[in-house]
Amino acid sequence: MYDPQPTASHYVNGAYLEDTSGTPIPVIYPATGEVIATVYAATPAVIDAALAAAEAAQKLWAKVSPRERGRVLTRAAQIMRERNHDLSVLETRDTGKPLQETLVADATSGADALEYFGGIAAGLTGEHIPLGEDWVYTIREALGVCVGIGAWNYPTQIACWKGAPALACGNAMVFKPSETTPLCALKIAEILTEAGAPAGLFNVVQGMGEVGSALVTDPRVAKVSLTGSVPTGRKVYAAAAEQMKHVTMELGGKSPLVIFDDADLDNAVSGAINGNFYSSGQVCSNGTRVFVQKGIKEAFLARLAERLKNAVIGDPLDEATSFGPMVSERQMQIVQGYINKGRAEGARLISGGGRVERDGFFLEPTVFADVTDDMTIAREEIFGPVMAVLDFDTEAEAIARANATEFGLSAGVFTRDLSRAHRVIGQLRAGSCFINSYNDAPVEAPFGGVKASGVGRENSKAALDHWSQLKSVYVRMGDVEAAF
Ligand code: NAD
């Protein structure tokens, strides 16, 4: 019978696998602090079994016609949509994000990725390059066994954003979810098996950084795709470089959202709310440095404070709730530390700033105004519900200050002046940009960062280049000339 909960820690070679000799990892429901499950970190034997299964499955899968590969992914997408409610409840229990969000943003976006790459699989071809009589043809080949390593904020989506294009291109995957949210990826593995993926094609192993590191350094692995923080990205990128592996790095950000005087006020406030408080602010692409032109500043802050009163903070499993807890006690404490720094460094607290009186790891949506570029809350990624509002006078000044960061994941601009919108976006150094919107991430569009925010792109046709490689074959039609 179908069980909405995963039934063991790992998923290896087409089945759940338990090995309680690994370090226990409690899974804590962030809304109450209760332990809802325990998984065990993968032992070397589990890691080896997963990689061996992936290696064997990949050899078979590479020979499956791309159309059939696509069909498996599309079937998996359909199953995910049918089970959206159960998968969303699991996502909410794993992360604490409100069901109101998870019902529309997690299994659904995972299914979008499976559907998109399932549809595109049969269209993956090489090309013919004429050279007069001779010619070259190219073959788009799989990389082999790929490793996916996830962050904790979007466990279902991250597993699918990595798994779907990897499998469409003929690779196999060993996926390690974040130790903070280990449950959801297991269901993706189970669904892929049900959809017809061969045993071993998509495996899930649990663990902390050491398990990730063991996967990254294993010589059987051809590529590593990490979603995580910049410090982890540096370590994983360096370890992958030792063996010249392919990498995709989806890392952190401190993205600017620039609001000009002529912006539609309510739309700009909505953009700032979406870009700071969705998923309680635990979104990598958030526009956490909100630059507001001086003429609109007080009106913006007043409207924002008013709109924040409408946040429904509470039980994430109640569909009326629109703002949930932080993922963990540790993350809550990190964010509280930043709020204290904001106060100590002289930013003006407009709303929030404290814990919510209830069990679990709830913090209020928090807004600071009069933030200056040198303050800690304007420089470091907080990864929580803390918006920093900074003032500016001129377009050139806003662009220079927006770019003055090591990060470059996203950027947004709100203005009614079309030429200015494109001119400003053209100068902002970021991978995913928005005009009069914020944080949309359709699978059809490339997603990824510049500078310290990452390397490579997920989603869209662009992702295919990061999960496959081209072999070129020179074909000589005549005799071979040689010097002697
Ligand atoms: P993290 O860097 O602490 O961990 C990410 C993953 O890497 C976890 O699975 C962790 O176990 C693993 N890991 C840690 N050390 C490792 C090592 N040495 N070798 C291999 N794996 C290792 O990040 P987090 O706290 O889980 O997530 C929050 C961060 O992720 C934020 O910085 C956020 O911006 C970023 N993020 C980025 C994106 C994106 O697409 N750009 C999306 C979501 C989150």
Give an account of the 3D structure.
The protein is of the alpha/beta class. It is built from 15 helices and 20 strands. Helix 10 links the parallel strand 12 (256-259) and strand 13. It is globular. The protein binds nicotinamide-adenine-dinucleotide. Nicotinamide-adenine-dinucleotide is lined by residues 149-153, 176, 178-179, 208-209, 212-213, 216, 227-229, 232, 235-236, 250-253, 284, 381, 383, 409, 449, 454.
Characteristic terms for this protein:
7-stranded mixed sheet, alpha/beta, binds nicotinamide-adenine-dinucleotide, 484 residues, 15 helices, globular, 20 strands
Low-confidence stretches: none
Which percent range fits the helix content?
25-40%
The helix/strand class is alpha/beta
Bound molecules: nicotinamide-adenine-dinucleotide
Distance separating the two termini = 73 Å
Spatial order of the strands in the main sheet? 14-15-16-13-12-17-18
What percentage of amino acids are in beta strands? 15-25%
Evaluate the radius of gyration. 23 Å
Number of strands: 20
Q: How does the major sheet shape up?
A: 7 strands, mixed
